[in-house]
UniProtKB/TrEMBL annotation:
Protein name: FAD binding domain-containing protein
FAD-binding PCMH-type domain residues: 1-165
Alphabetical list of SUPFAM superfamilies matching this protein: CO dehydrogenase flavoprotein C-terminal domain-like, FAD-binding/transporter-associated domain-like
Pfam families from the UniProt entry: FAD_binding_5 (PF00941)
Keyword terms: FAD, Flavoprotein, Oxidoreductase
Keyword set includes Nuclease: no
PROSITE patterns with a match to the protein in the record: FAD_PCMH
């Protein structure tokens, strides 16, 4: 149970087979299911420096130990509303009280609610390494596996730009009330860059960014005016996002009849389209 981030890194360096644990909502579920038998655990619960946040050069530097429950409170929602909405939707109180922002990132579960928001915000992660080393990479690189944590490294902080711009997060679940997402959409308007950023979660192993749909709808918005769009444009954006994230099967090379999406995939595509349409509509309203 180290008391600082560097002590935790030293413990992991001394015992490479050990596993760091914060809230344990994913880790202990795997242990209890017999899927994981770690040689040791390095508890992060006593490291106060990663359990809060601070302001730095137009960004919020969020500690990886921030719980989902803490991020859901009104003061945090005033800071980063999209991330707060995702944290509030992350499950029942016992999960939100224990689960952490860093755990969401490192576990990288497809249904992790904070992940599409972080992707849409283009957040970066600050990684602590041996000898007091710090390096920073885009969160999308970590989520997609383009860059990985090295032995002895920990996610210490998440740097999020403070946009003071509309942010929305919506998710669909298979049942009423808190539950794992079958699909989720995070959307951010960035008036300074005149851009729309959208990320779709739970439909793939990592959040998906429909870049062409983002650019198309951003070109339709009157950034100097009321920023409204007609319902037909909102619907077209939803369909554009859904088709990009759940594309039609590739046509057969032998010239035979093209395959069609199974009913479950078509239902998921309609769900993503509805979420993207509503998210953009709320951001523009």
């Amino acid at each position: 149970m180290p008391a600082s981030l560097d002590e935790a890194v030293a413990a992991l360096t001394a015992m490479p087979a050990a596993v760091p644990v914060a809230g344990g909502t994913d880790l202990m579920a795997a242990v209890n299911a017999g899927l994981l038998r770690p040689a040791g655990l390095v508890g992060l619960g006593r490291i106060s420096e990663i359990r809060g946040w601070q302001y730095l050069d137009g960004h919020a530097l969020l500690g990886a130990g921030l719980t989902l429950a803490r991020m859901g409170r009104p003061d945090f929602a005033a800071l980063i509303p999209g991330l707060a909405a995702a944290a509030r939707a992350a499950g029942p109180p016992q999960i939100r009280n224990a689960g952490t922002l860093g755990g969401n990132i490192v576990s990288c579960a497809p249904t992790g609610d904070t992940l599409p928001v972080l992707a849409a915000l283009e957040a970066t992660v600050v990684i602590a390494g041996p000898g007091g080393a710090r390096r920073e990479i885009p969160v999308s690189h970590l989520l997609t596996g383009r860059e990985m944590l090295n032995p002895g490294e920990l996610v210490g902080f998440v740097r999020v730009p403070l946009l003071h711009a509309p942010q929305t997060f919506l998710k669909a679940t298979g049942r009423t009330g808190p539950g794992r997402a079958t699909a989720s959409v995070a959307l951010v308007l960035d008036p300074a860059r005149r851009s729309v950023r959208c990320a779709v979660g739970a439909v793939a192993a990592m959040p998906l960014r429909p870049l062409e749909a983002e650019q198309w709808v951003a070109s339709l918005i009157d950034w100097d005016g009321e920023r409204g769009l007609v319902p037909e444009a909102l619907a077209a954006f939803g369909d554009y996002v859904a088709a990009a994230c759940i594309p039609d099967p590739a046509p057969p090379q032998d010239g035979s009849e093209p395959a069609t999406l199974p009913p479950a995939a078509l239902h998921l595509r309609r769900t993503v389209a509805a979420l993207a349409r509503r998210a953009l509509g709320r951001a523009l309203s």
